[in-house]
Amino acid sequence: MPKKYDLTIAYRIYPKISKNPIVFNKDKYKLSELCLRSLKKSLGDLKVKMIVLLDNCPSEYSDLFKRYFDPDDLELIHLEGVGNLKTFSMQIEILLDQKFSDVVYFAEDDYYYLPNQFSEMINFLIKSDDVDFVSPFDHIDYYKYNFHNYNSKIKFCEKKHWRTVATTCLTFLTTKETLKNTQNIFKSYTRGNYDTSIWASLTKYNIFNPFKLLRYQEKPYFIGVFFKSWRYSVIQNFFGKRWSLWTPIPTIATHVETEDVSPTLEWSKIIEEKQ
Predict the structure, then answer these.
(1) How far is CA 106 from CA 42, 44, 59, 115, 169, in A?
(2) DSSP for residue 108
């Protein structure tokens, strides 16, 4: 029997501001609505099952999702402040257990998406045998830090360039099969591993030469990434598959944290025009 949905999203949301977003930096509800509305527009005509983890959220947050998604396509899970680590663990289990689609997406509540572009990620993932994970986010870190000075594979697909990268955040696209095979690495996040270290172990960029990292100006953080990678994922580092993580150029979405926004686009202007 064919799958009913093109995509299943596990979306986690928390009603407090994290760091310093570029808009609505004192109003998480308005920021949440902005980001959710942008995701909905980016999804276009895709058939999507939306499963939402509402962590200590007031009732208006539930109403927000009901406004943008049909009741038949929406599942709301109310939690009482279980926190970041627990909600990420729940995302893994939910996306592995669901039977709505083979393609799955981990979503956080502070990303702004460009309209009608999400399908480009899905097409890139399912049409390419060497694509394991896709992030929508062309992160500014790729241009700032020597850690990301490595050789990337480059492809052209769906009107964008795509390149392999070492790391990203915890908003990403993959398949159930790939998630099943890598779930134990991701679950180390709940035991104290960094998200950056998880990705470094999976992609195997810059994990075999700590002396190289000592030359970098940003070395304290990335030395920590190196040691976390080996503390939690030594078997993966030595014997596991090298998984591929790809990001688009130009970007499909940006983290709305002021210091993290994707380069080359005037995000404040784009957001103002789209409202």
Answers:
(1) 15, 18, 23, 18, 10
(2) E
Tokens of 177: 């099969």
110 closest CA partner among 197, 205, 14, 182: 14
Q: Are 35 and 111 in contact (CB under 8 A)?
A: yes
Q: What is the pLDDT of residues 51-70, one digit of tens each?
A: 999 999 999 999 999 999 99
Note the pLDDT of residue 42.
99
Query: Do 4 and 47 form a contact (C-beta atoms < 8 A)?
Result: yes
CATH number at residue 41: 3.90.550
In-domain check, residue 2: no
Q: Which residues pair with 160 in a beta bridge?
A: 157
CB atoms within 10 A of CB 193: 20
Is the confidence at residue 2, as pLDDT, over 60?
no
For residues 124 and 31, the answer to whether their CB atoms sit within 8 Å is no
Number of domains the chain contains: 1
Q: Does pTM top 0.85 for this prediction?
A: yes
Residue range of the domain that includes 261: 7-274
